[in-house]
């Protein structure tokens, strides 16, 4: 290995930490192989290094005893030793069903125990040819995962399997399940999908659950991808909206978060009419256009003062890391800061270590890599921590795109359509149909109707059956829809054009 001057400096810096009694020895062997980058956040500089690479969609991470255990979507559970940088495979499951989003998803490790801690994972698998989501428990000996026990199995699907796992200080396990793309699930408080479930570590119902003999804690969720507690044990989730309104929710027992009757804030006439009859809870934050939130963690360490008392959120579609500073009421968001736009690609999981370092995982080898990714060393686990250096070159906070500014067809297409149909209009095989040479886009009234109404039946297009529906885009203004239609027609079709007036006429 060739030692760069910078690496030696970091090595010395690390030794200094060790000598001065830093509890977490976070060895830098891996870091020396990959150049460190810097980020300016608030007044200070942070250092971003790679602690593991060559991974395959590290989906969930948790910490125990100076090690990070993490899942990879196709079925591996790996152990990263933070002292030595050593990476080991603990499990290689063979019954994981993985295609696009399903697979081995989250992991959670029991805290505060003198015994070998329990480790929970959940994954999609086929059971008698039907997809299910299963929650499994192991015990971690410090080097092995043993005593496998099946805890709970709920409905699974080819999409919307959630999910996140979280264990609180009292050893209660929370499992956020997806609605399995079935609109009947989330509002039915007797099913276990589209819910936050609450259980003892053996899967039994805690005696203080809000519904006696039921694991259901809160409902009305679509597809939760992030979940964390703050310092006061407030529970927060991040979830994917449909075409609009990705959300962060403050989850409380027996609250109904609205899906599929309501999306995001209660702000349309239809939604206001619904909540005047049935009590539903608004998110504390929503994003339109969507950003595709993924993992979320709570930061409350002095190491990075600007991020104290903040929710840290990584995202897939917008390829960013976001810091949502909380107000002292602990349930409203004061500020949002956005970092790393497209720099590391899609991001899946985030974990705060006891010493205040932050780990992020990339997701560039998943089913939907964005232009320029995956890079050779993807996927990676990155570490962010305070830097003592005054670097000459550094990344900076991203300036949010003002949504009020006039948006042309290309920008609108990128914001609302390209995540599925791709910027080149070629779609994603068997998942999202191509727009290039689609007959549908040559029939402008039919195309307009499709965008206004979405699809309700799964369509077979050119011999391929698509398993998901497309959401309605009627929330876009006539002028915006006309811009998109004309852009799609010009780029992928026969270049016919429409007008906002023609869109308006079809709207009613
Ligand atoms: C979340 C993913 C997603 C987004 C975002 C999305 N679509 Fe789709 N789109 C689909 C799916 C899935 C289908 C197939 C629907 C079905 O089978 O019911 C589809 C179908 C279509 C079709 C029909 C194709 C054909 O040949 O019949 C067109 C046209 C289309 N979408 C245009 C758009 C436009 C324009 C946008 C942006 C405003 C957009 N879509 C946004 C997922 C998406």
UniProtKB/TrEMBL annotation:
Gene Ontology molecular functions: electron transfer activity; heme binding; metal ion binding
Keyword Cell inner membrane: no
InterPro entries found in the cross-reference section: 6-blade_b-propeller_TolB-like, Cyt_c-like_dom, Cyt_c-like_dom_sf, Glc/Sorbosone_DH, Quinoprot_gluc/sorb_DH_b-prop
Keywords annotated in UniProt: Heme, Iron, Metal-binding
Pfam families: Cytochrom_C, GSDH
Keyword RNA-binding attached: no
Record protein name field: C-type cytochrome
Domain Cytochrome c: 404-492
